[in-house]
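pasting for the record
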Amino acid sequence: MPNQPGYKRTQYLVAKKFQLKYVGLILVLVFSTAVLCSYVIYYTMMLTMGDKLANIYPQGRLIAIVNTVNVRILVSMLLVAPLIIVIGIFASHKIAGPVGRIERFLDAMATGDLSVPLILRSNDEFVSLANGINKVMSTMKTSVKAEREKLANLSVSIDNLKKLAQSHPVNSSAISQALGKISDEVSILKVEVAKYKI
């Protein structure tokens, strides 16, 4: 698969809706895990050490300690959130960028543009999919070139037939030969087109 030398993506939010949804999912998972872990730790700690801590610290002081720990966990999660967002955007753009490029390529291919191959960076996702799409496009290009050549030959044969029909005296055997050649070329085109399932 050819890679564009020196190609770097400068815009990391290429599919904002998808990428922000992806980052949101990561944030929800991280915060949910943090809340669950915190709850399990507190619950376990309070069950095993609650009575002992209550004997050492007055109840108001113990509640203040628990609240301080809660605030520190919340602040830590809020400080980690931007890092998670940046990591999520960088990770998702390796998916969203190639998907956008593949969509644009397929749109161009649907209009008949088979001139430029699909190029992804080697470290992007879907490189194997791009290779498969390029293989399909290469096969289509080969078929289209072959069919164009056959159509050009057919056009030449029809022009020759017209000239033969307009000549005086009309050479019926030459016309029969020209018609036979046209018939053969049409048969070959039919075989070529028949391989496509639509």
